Structures
1.
Amino acid sequence: MVALQLDHVFKQYGEKTAVNNISLQVEQGEIYGLLGANGAGKTTTMRMVLGLIYPDGGDIRYHGKPYSVELTRVMGYLPEERGLYPKVKISDQIIYLARLRGMSKLDADKSLRYWLDRFEVPEYYDKRIEELSKGNQQKMGFIAAIVHKPQILILDEAFSGLDPVNVELLKVTVKELRDSGTSILFSTHRMEHVEELCRRITILHRSNTVVQGDIREIKSRYPREEVILYTQGQVNRLDSIPGVKSVESVERGYHIHISTPDTAQLILQHAMAETTVERFEIKEPTLNQIFIQEVGESNE
Amino acid sequence: MNSNLGTIIGFTFKNKVKTKSFLITTLVLAILITIGMNLPYLIKQFSGGDDGKAKQIGLLVGSQQETAAELQKYAEAAGSKDYAFVPYAGSSEDALKQDVKDGKLEGYVTFEEDPANKSFPKVVYAGEGDMSQSLGTYLQGALQNVKTTMITKDSLTAEQISALNQPVSFSSLDISDNAKASSGKDAEKDRNQKIMNYVTVYFLMILFFSSNMMTGNMIAAEITAEKSSRIMEILITSVKPLHQMFGKIIGIFLVGIVQIAAFGVVIGANLMLPNNVGMLDEFHLSLADINMEVLLYGLAFYIFGYFLFAVLYAAIGSMVSRTEELGQAVMPITMLGLAAFYIGIFSINTPGSMLIKVTSFIPFTAPTAMLVRIGMGEVPVWQILISLALLIVSILVFGWLSAKIYRTGVLMYGKRPSFKELRKAMKAYKI
């Protein structure tokens, strides 16, 4: 079931196009990755989904219906710059925010206590935001975004500024929410998070959609251009094989860049003829490489 | 969605009232009010010294036995609790000086033949430091009385003398068409009511101005803080901006009311203190003389005026990104508030001037200007109603406009936007 659907959504600020005809679908129980450099249009897209600003063209549908005020109750939002009152008690403000989104005081309190226990910080209930470290403030912002059990969750750079332990904690939580049926629109700069969490992504570059789809499909569209070869003895004249772009010697073997996939087989045959092969792998491109290729090139 | 408005009002109110700064300012102001109200009594206590006992004034009788006797007689008849005379025989001041030094006497009075005026001697008061004003007034009055008695001797009766000393009764009467025909009996009540009206109008204007400034700045500061902490983005995706804005305005209005009520209780409690009980009477004021019409109209203008200014403060607050810039940004509204206040205060004695007539129809100045006209002058009811209607319409117009500015402004960070930029942004955001 499609929880969130953007159809040729277009947004212009004056002369400048902020988002150019983005189309995407987030299924129920899916984490959808929205990638892009700074200023690519991620936040604008998210703000349009949230109803903070209205698109100039195109259509956004939530469970098949257009935007309405009632939607605020089923949406959760963690802005890139965490928004909480610095001087108000955490319990006071998070219960307040949950109540604004239609929760009863009692349920909100229960939910808040559950999440504080879950993050192993029940003592924060009576603390103020300004007393917490930046990472913990972010965890509180995350709780504020999910305390009312939203069906559609918008996370803008949810993991930035967190230590590895807390990143892991939030990752597990996000996956859990996904498994319980929450649809999540997730933006980040960090490719490794996307590869781990998301099935489908959209890469934005200067307001335009440059790459979109299933991560595995995207990767298969890009040629495998790197070969890892570990051998017992030396392999000579690797660079004379047609199609080899460069050879890099490492401790136990070679990293070889090639221009066509067929070259890999030639390398393997050549190596086997000379010595014993211990490891042979044709590496698929990382998302990072794809991103840099797509975004970096046109950046010049 | 209306429960949201209640939630916002409750949250705003609770958090503002709980802040240390609010508690401290309220407490400090309450203490200042208490000190101010008891200052006259305290001063009397400190300068007067001894526990309310009458101050002893020495009388060096000398050759003026008759004058001294009359003075004592007068003091007894007047029954003053503050001063009493103690006669000393002989003509040497040494004993008196010693007693003043020992603190037995406040000071003493000596008589001296006046060559220019055979019938009454010159009087000199001697004491440590300057003579207090109240003692001077007392002695002057007493001596004047004694002099009259002595000169007229037995040619006038006691009644005639007291009639002579009675001040002339003088009052004014309004005979214009719309003045209520008042019989002589009501004249004094009328006069008292006028004074009370004056007090009510003055009080309401100060209330309007001070609560406007205080709460207005609070509203703007709160909104700017929400914007700079980015919680605004979450709020705006949770609640309609109109609810959010009015929730904030009403919440802080209640905070202001609580503060005013606290001051009211402090003032009331102070008036109940034994040393202050007579204060209102002294000024011939009685709460029963409060004109309900003036009070009710005044409160209506006060509340509506508050909301008009509050929506403007909210709009300004939403346009500013950092609290430091706020002071400068709210300047135009502060000036508007000042103008309203001063027009009211300076025109309180000329409630019929053209200035006050015109400004009583301008929504921003109407809360003070119309109040002056209602309380101090004469104004037909239909004019009051038109002025109120204009005020309410302008609240709706400016409230709507402010909500739009608010909705746009809170998404604009960085430098404060000009109105042109704001309009462009409104168009761009489709607000």
Note: The longest strand of chain A covers residues 2-13.
2.
Amino acid sequence: MAVLEILVYPDPRLKQISEPVETVDQALLDFIADLEETMRAGPGGVGIAAPQVGCFKRIVIVDVSCKPKIPHHGRLVLINPVIATSNGSVVGREGCLSVPDYTGNVARAERITLNAWDETGAERVYSMEGFEARAVQHEMDHLEGLLFLDRLVSRRDIFRRKVYQKPRASVSKPS
Amino acid sequence: MKKWYMVTLVGRDQPGIVAGVAQALYAGRCNLGEASMARLGGNFATMLMVEFDGEIPALEAMLEEVSGRMGLRCHVDAIEAGLHCHIEPDVRISVYGADRAGIVAEVTGALAEAGLNILNLETDIGGTEENPIYIMHLDGVAGRGAAALRSVLETLSREKNVEARLVENDLLMG
Ligand SMILES: [Zn+2]
């Protein structure tokens, strides 16, 4: 096990699109263990994507279980994840292990369902919301060469969203 | 030794101010740090952190031509500053309601008493001439916790007839 070096923007490799994983083998599992150790070594890191350590494969790890009182799936290894459905919009503050000394507000889907392989290569389906869903979307962006900097909203946008969505939110039916 | 200045420019808004100022500073070998610009009631107002090797008169002289051409008043202060001094806001608060005198003072005063350190504040007047509405958005640090601020906001909404909302920033680091 090893803590890997994290690429830091403006490293152009962070803008690269990652390739699907073909097979899950021991080498891949060893890499995933290192990736997880790297995530846990960073301060407050709740997720990491393989391209952040210069491995351009579609793998992300998310674990938001350290946050109190929120629904979550614990430690999640997502291989070749695909978001199947997404609903709602919520603005939250994000930072990135690859973007030191800057945080900003980003709009994300509030609830998502996704398909991904687990570490045995089995196809899994997850349904998630809130902080965990935001974390997965942040990490999956890395697979597309996107950073939260590509999705910043201004303070004014946050406010508009909040004020004008209020009536709609109160009449929407639970899906 | 890097020297930092705060340049404040105020004037009637017109296209090309930011570009004109930035070019004058670049030509004078200044570096720009953090900056904020707003259009307030048709006026342009900006604050720029500027890094410059010389003294205040030289910086003022550098901005004289563009200020004159664009009708800007320019003010320069030497500041103790540096980059990478961000403070992370842990709450964001929005308040709105019918506009009336004293609302900003009431809201910010009550929040300050409950421990809020305001990092960013933006207020606006919308609605119509007859029925103006007041809209405020702020980011800050809840020095005594978000619950203290929530209870103040509840009181304000009840007693002052404003809509108030607080969101805790659940910083996602990934
Ligand atoms: Zn990231």
Note: Chain B has a mean pLDDT of 94.
